């Protein structure tokens, strides 16, 4: 029986080849998108699921109130760690990691700056369990000891037996020499703990310079390079530890502080892009939900095509159904026959989808995590998803047409008295409106995202970005002094500054400050930039009041921005000049107020900001080129100065405008993704419309012939067929406008500075969809109208 159903289904699909092709193509697009997105979702949700006692593992996160600006970070004050160990009975094990990206040298071999290195304590290996090949966690109790993974050991000492790697020397930043004391296997499974090299934390504890760089003894220093990982005792609620964290920190902060500290479950780390984890790629759960919604929309479009075309063919297949029923077929067997056709079609679509997956992965590589590859088909979750998807798609797409066709009465069918076939036109109209509503909403969303992207690229940031670049000195102690001296005489360079970061920067350095006419800012965490006297003129930052910092500043003068002065209660910027500001308890004079400039992307409001000098923080060299400079030649000279100062490191300059563009990577990717989705949606919708137009012209062949005999022109016949489509697209545009406005208004609230949705977006999108729809229908109508009426009216 089943074999007969399949054979009949294949025969019907071949008989209606074009419509079968339309259905399979529409379904395959939706299924392939669903398959790729399921691979992404499965990949991101499988991170760090393999740890023993993983349900008791947490990371401490901080919610800092930067005077009405909230910053979420994984950084915690280092003194808190020892306080937790000595005073919290609910914690079984506590360890902290301190990210390190050293310039590595072994003998005469230079490896450059290597990532995936961290300072670690022995306790880390008690929380996150590794398989030890040589050594044990105890080796990290001593300074200048390192533990490597197998992969890093092979990279450093290729071909050397692991046992002989123990005791070998590795040099960091030409200043720290460590001995390899242990080797571990990398963690098996998807994880964000993909470190390849662990240096003993005692190395930092024995180096005062390193400690000062990270505010080692300060309760008011937060840095995302430092993460605390812990494991609770069985039965201990994380809320209990949250309360203990607040109690431990409270004596060391202002009583009015709004800062909060809490535990984040290990399995949520990968799904929280708002809190960085050592620069790892992190998934965004809301984005995964939106991708899932996009899959549903694309599957709906393909399913709507199927329902539309199947019900449109009802008249042609009515006699087949009548004969089947008169020969004894039951309603259930007819339903089974048509569901069988649906499942066969969904199976063909799934096969096409699998063939499309490699091309999709290649085309969308910028959007897709590196770990998502065709090899994931070997994982049972992905493998089983394919037949499950075929089952769901086949059932949902085919069940309605099957029951509609199974209800036909054989006597009426064979007498050509089937009523209700044309009544399904109303359903097809509703489905067509649904298709175009989805497509139009995507068009409108794409335009709005594009306009917001243009806005953020054109907006005045409060500083100059053109022809400006910066380079970062490698290592902890490296300075740019020598390089700066060599570049002073380069004619292509207009100005040079030594500072810590450019005006807009992804990282945030903050410290505790007290300032204000009535103490409005008191022991508040405030963003800080460390600069020299050339920084402000180099970036064209305007001074609203007072003056710039002086050269060779030994008393550490301070500049504040307008937002800082306003938050401190001063009516004008001039009122803030001459006041004293307390930074970590030490008072410094405010000598000037700079105009507000954007320190982050347009997603964030300009925060209160202070700028001052610090010799240890001048690790970046900022260069402004002359307007008429030969840029390639200037870069060659800068590289020569770099090579002379840092011969072991690659020269990697960053232009300020390129760095700014990274703030909007997600928006650019969203625009591209919406563009692809819009194109697919329009394609599927027009494909379905084309199929309906073909059936409509076939059913109205005699009507067209009679109209032509009575004098109707080709143009009037085309207009006749186009009127219905115009009406449907206009209804879809009305629905889509409301949906798109609501969704994009919500999206724009994620930007502190954004556009107002332009009114012209909605009619423009509607006009675009209408032109495509009319072109699709008019082509078929024109073809039918050009047929000789004699051929149209002759009897079968």
From TrEMBL:
<feature type="transmembrane region" description="Helical">
    <location>
        <begin position="757"/>
        <end position="779"/>
    </location>
</feature>
<feature type="transmembrane region" description="Helical">
    <location>
        <begin position="287"/>
        <end position="309"/>
    </location>
</feature>
<feature type="transmembrane region" description="Helical">
    <location>
        <begin position="709"/>
        <end position="737"/>
    </location>
</feature>
<feature type="domain" description="MacB-like periplasmic core">
    <location>
        <begin position="431"/>
        <end position="640"/>
    </location>
</feature>
<keyword id="KW-0812">Transmembrane</keyword>
<feature type="transmembrane region" description="Helical">
    <location>
        <begin position="427"/>
        <end position="449"/>
    </location>
</feature>
<feature type="transmembrane region" description="Helical">
    <location>
        <begin position="21"/>
        <end position="41"/>
    </location>
</feature>
<dbReference type="InterPro" id="IPR050250">
    <property type="entry name" value="Macrolide_Exporter_MacB"/>
</dbReference>
<feature type="domain" description="ABC3 transporter permease C-terminal">
    <location>
        <begin position="679"/>
        <end position="788"/>
    </location>
</feature>
<feature type="domain" description="MacB-like periplasmic core">
    <location>
        <begin position="20"/>
        <end position="247"/>
    </location>
</feature>
<feature type="transmembrane region" description="Helical">
    <location>
        <begin position="343"/>
        <end position="364"/>
    </location>
</feature>
<keyword id="KW-1003">Cell membrane</keyword>
<keyword id="KW-1133">Transmembrane helix</keyword>
<dbReference type="Pfam" id="PF12704">
    <property type="entry name" value="MacB_PCD"/>
</dbReference>
<dbReference type="InterPro" id="IPR003838">
    <property type="entry name" value="ABC3_permease_C"/>
</dbReference>
<feature type="domain" description="ABC3 transporter permease C-terminal">
    <location>
        <begin position="294"/>
        <end position="410"/>
    </location>
</feature>
<dbReference type="Pfam" id="PF02687">
    <property type="entry name" value="FtsX"/>
</dbReference>
<keyword id="KW-0472">Membrane</keyword>
<feature type="transmembrane region" description="Helical">
    <location>
        <begin position="673"/>
        <end position="697"/>
    </location>
</feature>
<protein>
    <submittedName>
        <fullName>ABC transporter permease</fullName>
    </submittedName>
</protein>
<dbReference type="InterPro" id="IPR025857">
    <property type="entry name" value="MacB_PCD"/>
</dbReference>
<feature type="transmembrane region" description="Helical">
    <location>
        <begin position="384"/>
        <end position="406"/>
    </location>
</feature>
């Amino acid at each position: 029986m089943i074999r007969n159903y399949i054979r009949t289904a294949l025969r019907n699909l071949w008989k209606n080849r074009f419509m079968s092709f339309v259905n399979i193509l529409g379904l395959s697009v939706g299924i392939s998108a669903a398959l790729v997105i399921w691979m992404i979702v499965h990949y991101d949700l499988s991170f760090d699921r393999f740890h023993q006692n993983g349900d008791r593992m947490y990371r401490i996160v901080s919610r800092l109130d930067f005077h009405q600006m909230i910053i979420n970070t994984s950084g915690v004050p280092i003194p808190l760690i020892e306080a937790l160990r000595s005073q919290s009975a609910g914690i079984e094990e506590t360890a902290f990691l301190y990210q390190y990206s050293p310039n590595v040298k072994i003998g005469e071999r230079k490896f450059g700056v290597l990532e995936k290195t961290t300072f670690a304590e022995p306790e880390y290996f008690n929380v996150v369990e590794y398989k030890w090949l040589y050594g044990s966690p105890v080796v990290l109790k001593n300074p200048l000891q390192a533990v490597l993974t197998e992969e890093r050991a092979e990279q450093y000492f290729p071909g050397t037996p692991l046992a002989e790697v123990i005791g070998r020397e590795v040099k960091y930043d030409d200043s720290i020499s460590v001995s390899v004391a242990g080797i571990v296997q990398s963690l098996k499974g998807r994880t964000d703990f993909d470190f390849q090299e662990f240096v003993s934390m005692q190395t930092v504890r024995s180096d005062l310079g390193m400690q000062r760089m990270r505010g080692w003894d300060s309760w008011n220093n937060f840095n995302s390079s430092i993460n605390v990982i812990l494991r609770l005792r069985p039965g201990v609620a994380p809320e209990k530890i949250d309360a203990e964290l607040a109690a431990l920190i409270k004596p060391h902060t202002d009583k009015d502080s709004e800062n909060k500290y809490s535990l984040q479950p290990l399995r949520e780390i990968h799904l929280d892009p708002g809190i960085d984890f050592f620069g790892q790629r992190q998934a965004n759960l809301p984005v995964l939900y939106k991708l899932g919604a996009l899959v549903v929309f694309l599957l709906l479009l393909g399913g709507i095509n199927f329902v539309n075309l199947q019900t449109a063919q009802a008249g042609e297949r009515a006699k087949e159904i009548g004969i089947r029923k008169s020969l004894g077929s039951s309603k259930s067997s007819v339903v089974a026959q048509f569901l069988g056709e649906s499942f066969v079609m969904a199976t063909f679509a799934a096969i096409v989808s699998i063939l499309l997956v490699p091309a999709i992965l290649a085309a969308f590589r910028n959007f897709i995590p590196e770990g998502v590859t065709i090899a994931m088909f070997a994982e049972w979750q992905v493998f089983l998803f394919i037949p499950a998807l075929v089952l769901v798609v086949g059932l949902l797409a085919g069940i309605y047409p099957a029951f509609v066709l199974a209800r036909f009465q054989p006597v009426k069918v064979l007498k050509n008295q089937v009523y209700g076939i044309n009544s399904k036109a109303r359903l097809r109209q509703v489905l067509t409106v649904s298709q175009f509503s989805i497509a139009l909403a995507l068009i409108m969303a794409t335009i709005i995202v594009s306009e917001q992207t243009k806005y953020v690229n054109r907006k005045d940031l409060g500083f100059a970005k053109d022809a400006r670049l910066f380079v970062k000195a490698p290592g902890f102690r490296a300075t740019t002094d020598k390089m700066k001296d060599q570049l002073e005489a380069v004619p292509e360079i207009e100005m040079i500054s030594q500072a810590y970061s450019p005006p807009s920067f992804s990282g945030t350095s903050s410290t505790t400050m007290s300032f204000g006419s009535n103490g409005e800012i008191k022991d508040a965490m405030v963003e800080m930039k460390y600069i020299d006297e050339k920084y402000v003129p180099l970036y064209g930052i305007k001074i609203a009041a007072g003056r710039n910092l002086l050269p060779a500043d030994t008393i550490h003068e301070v500049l504040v921005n307008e937002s800082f002065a306003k938050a401190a209660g001063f009516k004008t910027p001039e009122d803030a000049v001459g006041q004293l500001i307390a930074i970590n308890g030490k008072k410094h004079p405010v000598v000037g107020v700079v105009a507000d400039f954007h320190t982050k992307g347009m997603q964030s409001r300009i925060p209160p900001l202070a700028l001052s000098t610090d010799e240890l923080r001048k690790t970046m060299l900022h260069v402004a080129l002359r307007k008429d400079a030969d840029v390639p030649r200037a870069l060659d000279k800068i590289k020569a100065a770099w090579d002379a100062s840092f011969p072991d490191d690659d020269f990697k300059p960053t232009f300020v405008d390129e760095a700014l563009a990274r703030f909007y990577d997600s928006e650019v990717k969203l625009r591209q993704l919406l563009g692809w989705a819009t194109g697919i949606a329009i394609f599927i919708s027009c494909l379905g419309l084309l199929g309906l137009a073909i059936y409509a012209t076939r059913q109205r062949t005699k009507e067209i012939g009679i109209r032509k005999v009575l004098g109707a022109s080709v143009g009037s016949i085309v207009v006749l067929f186009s009127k219905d489509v115009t009406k449907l697209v206009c209804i879809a545009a009305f629905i889509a406008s409301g949906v798109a406005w609501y969704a994009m208004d919500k999206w724009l609230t994620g930007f502190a500075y954004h556009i107002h949705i332009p009114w012209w977006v909605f009619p423009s999108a509607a006009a675009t969809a209408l032109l495509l729809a009319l072109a699709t229908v008019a082509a078929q109508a024109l073809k039918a109208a050009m047929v000789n009426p004699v051929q149209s009216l002759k009897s079968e």
